[in-house]
Amino acid sequence: MRPIFARLARDVPAMLGLGIVVFVLLLAVLGPWIAPYPGDASASHLLRRLKPPSLDYPFGTDNLGRDIFSRVILGARGALQIALAVVVASMLIGVPLGLLAGYRSGWLSETIMRITDVVLAIPQLVLALALAQLLSPSLESAMLALSLTYWPFFTRIVYAETRRLSGSLFVDALRGVGAGTSRIVFLHILPNALSPVIVRATIGLGFTILVAAVLGFLGMGATPPAPDWGLAIAESRTYLPKAWWYAAFPGVAILITVMGFNLLGDGLRDLVDPRIRRSR
């Protein structure tokens, strides 16, 4: 484990991404205690509406006089909750299907992979928008729509790894000593297939935050007065470009968070992919 962290520490972009991710996690956990105005982040204060950034309000105030700095901090928890819930749900659907399709052959495997290919052929954002449109606008609807569109990525990865590993000598040896299918799949194949799954999950966290913000921007995700980054950008459109801070700071929060997860995911991919390591 220590050599892995030593190699990761030499990757400057990956360490930058790790720092950003840890910072956002701390904001999500400690947000209510860090935010300068946590109690009235959802309350209206019309006498201080649309004030520019200042010492009292570092990110300015919105159209209802709420402190944008506090709402950006508090929005980190909601963004990470959505991302974690979507990625975990997608893994719970996609990983077992990939194991089943990869280890077994026949009509069941073909059916799973053809459905996977059909879902992958449709851009995730387009499919998520279509599903969210069919549901009532809410955070739960956005999470369900994203989960139903992201699981094929895990299915495809696990399917490829299971196909590769099922033909290995150690699997043949396990079959020779009478090991059952469940033992082979869950105790031997799955642990060896987890590295690309972890990389995909890390990158997927950032992408899910971005897509969830798009859904919030279009009114298909979080609903007012939730401190959601995408919703904040949507509410700011009426006041641009005069109140530029209203959209700028939630947008920067999305940019930095997504960039952090992508940099960390790229570093983990370089770490676990032997072909990339050999090419360096």
Automatic annotation (TrEMBL):
It is found in: Cell membrane. Belongs to the binding-protein-dependent transport system permease family. Keywords: Cell membrane, Membrane, Peptide transport, Protein transport, Transmembrane, Transmembrane helix, Transport. Residues 76-265 form the ABC transmembrane type-1 domain. One of its GO terms (biological process) is peptide transport. It comes from Enhydrobacter aerosaccus. This is Peptide/nickel transport system permease protein. PANTHER family: D,D-DIPEPTIDE TRANSPORT SYSTEM PERMEASE PROTEIN DDPC-RELATED, OLIGOPEPTIDE TRANSPORT SYSTEM PERMEASE PROTEIN APPC. The chain crosses the membrane at residues 12-35, 79-103, 115-135, 141-159, 197-223, 243-265. One of its GO terms (cellular component) is plasma membrane. It is a multi-pass membrane protein.
